[in-house]
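The protein record quoted for completeness.
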Amino acid sequence: GEGFLIVYSITMRDTFTDVNRFHDHILSVKGVEDVPLIVVGSKCDLENDREVPASEVCFIIIISFEITVGR
């Protein structure tokens, strides 16, 4: 893949904890140091069942790309 999407459930802490493991696995398989990645918290409509506090979630999205212009 060129870019990746990791989704975790705000109602299941273990899915949030696994985000780093999935990210590391993607980097290992691709053999690179970074990849375009978006992390999404799902089930936001279940705020009363939230196990991952919003204050704990920090998103850093680094998108690296190179534009080549043909002549």
